[in-house]
What we know:
Strand content: 35-45%
Number of helices: 2
Largest sheet: 7 strands, antiparallel
Order of helices and strands: HEEEEEEEH
Radius of gyration: 18 Å
Amino acid sequence: MRKGVLFIFFIFIIKLNAQVLPDQFLVQSHSGILEESVNYPERPLPFSFDFVSSKNEVLKLYQLNFYKKNNTTHTFDLQIRNLIITCYFEIKMKDQNGKIKTLTAVYDKGNKWLRVKFAPTQSCAREKMRWERLNNVASFDEILEHIVRQIDKNLMLDCYR
């Protein structure tokens, strides 16, 4: 009985160490490059998630930036809510008419999947819009790149500021 409890405890400790969202990642800026951009097919699309502040243990504020030839072309406010079993990414996007819409991504920590959802203005959506789910998430960078890839693939970025 005692060996069984120790074995379960050992597995629990290993699972804790295999976190995709370590706390130190949530208070740092992150950047990357989307190699095959739909919005800018002639070149890669650099992006950054710039850490702004931490409201508390749960809520982190960022800015999501997209770059074109070393200039920031699009900047969006981003909130990350890191809860016990899920993590929510909320990106505020202002359309051409000044209406603010929220793109949401949900990361399930236990099952390690990520889903992005958004209801864009019809004129700003791609014809074959499809928000794909990412399974078997292995890293925080993978989450951020998937969010950027879904935005690039499904939206016309120039519609948003």
